[in-house]
């Protein structure tokens, strides 16, 4: 039994906005609760979509899109239900941090959660075992946050398990229509895998990042999301566009060979740009040591070929920091 109380009735038709109350007793507020914003727009029978922003608190694009759509979508345009979490890990989002300042929890590494656990684990449990059990789709809007920058607007989805699922998934990703879609292996602690455990299909976005909100990426992601909601028959009316924003190219991301990490503490100098095509063995970055001026920089190399889709933003690095992320085109 979850410790979280939902102020709104998810079974009621219409437009409802309130808070998920997560009890949290601290020195300044003995009987207090954490206010996690939640909304529901429901109208009769149809698909159920859980739409999330703020899974990581320093990723702002999803928070803007989800909160905007809560205000803009009218119940008469809906057939089914939209459940909105604009700041899913509210403590992290309120602080502008990737992880919660209350318990250090990373929501997207906390599933399936713990109903009686620390705040992040309790939120994960509620999402998986109370919200996702009723949903057919999870749309989880991410970006690179404050430490990473993605090249444009991208989507991620778990690798399909059979040809039928592959056909359905590619149709959904094509309807969302962002330029790239990365297919990756399931990770049991991610929200996407939580959705799969509960029988839902998940689409995750990665929209720019660097602690900013880019107008063009926000526009394309909103366009694609609304087109997808129309495609599945949940949304009609004036907000639904005539088609997707772009034609989607499909990529695979498979393990450590598609990532470059720092093995030294210093200042990193990128040797390539986002969108570049690279080959295995190509130099990726140099790590400089300004505190030891006579020490030669160390070069990091790509372990595989692919397209550079993500890079680290802060130049200061420590051992274990991710510098680059590649994706490999799928040959159809």
Task: Describe how the helices and strands are arranged.
Blueprint: E1 5-6, E2 14-23, E3 33-43, E4 48-52, H1 61-72, E5 80-85, H2 90-95, H3 119-131, E6 137-142, E7 148-158, H4 163-176, E8 180-184, H5 191-197, E9 201-209, H6 215-231, E10 249-253, E11 259-261, E12 266-270, E13 277-278, E14 283-288, E15 298-301, E16 306-312, E17 316-317, E18 322-329
Parallel strand pairs: 4-5, 4-6, 6-9, 7-8, 8-10
Antiparallel strand pairs: 1-2, 2-3, 3-5, 7-9, 7-16, 10-18, 11-18, 12-14, 12-17, 13-16, 14-15, 16-18
Helix pairs in contact: 1-6, 4-6
According to CATH, the fold-level topology of the largest domain is Aminopeptidase
- Give the rounded overall mean pLDDT: 97
Domain unit count:
2
- Category from helices, strands and their pairing: alpha+beta
Quaternary form: single chain
CATH architecture of the largest domain: 3-Layer(aba) Sandwich
Strand percent estimate: 25-35%
Distance between the termini: 46 Å
- Helix tally equals 6
Share in helix: 10-25%
Rg is 20 Å
């Amino acid at each position: 039994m979850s410790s979280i109380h939902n102020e709104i009735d998810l079974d009621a038709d219409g437009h409802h906005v309130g808070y998920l109350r997560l009890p949290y007793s601290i020195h300044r507020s003995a009987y207090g609760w954490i206010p996690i914003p939640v909304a529901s727009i429901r109208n009769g029978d149809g698909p159920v979509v859980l739409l999330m922003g703020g899974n990581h608190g320093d990723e702002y694009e999803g928070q803007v899109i989800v909160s905007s759509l809560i205000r803009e979508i009218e119940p008469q345009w809906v057939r089914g239900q939209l459940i909105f979490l604009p700041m899913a890990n509210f403590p992290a989002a309120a602080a502008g941090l990737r992880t919660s300042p209350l318990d250090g929890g990373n929501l997207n590494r906390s599933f399936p959660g713990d109903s009686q656990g620390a705040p992040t684990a309790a939120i994960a449990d509620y999402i998986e075992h109370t919200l996702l059990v009723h949903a057919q789709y999870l749309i989880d809007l991410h970006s690179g946050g404050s430490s990473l920058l993605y090249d444009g607007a991208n989507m991620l989805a778990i690798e399909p398990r059979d040809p039928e699922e592959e056909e359905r998934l590619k149709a959904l990703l094509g309807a969302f229509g962002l330029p790239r879609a990365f297919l990756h292996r399931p990770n049991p602690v991610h929200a996407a895998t939580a959705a799969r455990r509960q029988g839902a299909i998940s689409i995750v976005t990665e929209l720019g990042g660097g602690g900013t909100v880019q107008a063009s990426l926000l526009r394309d992601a909103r366009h694609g999301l609304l087109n997808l909601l129309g495609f599945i028959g949940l949304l009609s009316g004036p907000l639904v566009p005539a088609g997707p924003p772009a034609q989607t190219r499909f990529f695979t991301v498979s393990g450590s060979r598609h990532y470059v990490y720092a093995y030294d503490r210093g200042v990193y100098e990128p040797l390539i740009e986002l969108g570049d095509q690279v080959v295995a063995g190509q130099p990726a970055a140099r790590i400089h040591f300004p505190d030891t001026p006579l020490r030669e920089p160390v070069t990091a190399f790509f372990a595989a070929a692919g397209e550079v889709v993500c890079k680290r933003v802060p130049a200061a690095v420590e051992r274990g920091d991710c510098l680059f992320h590649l994706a490999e085109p799928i040959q159809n």
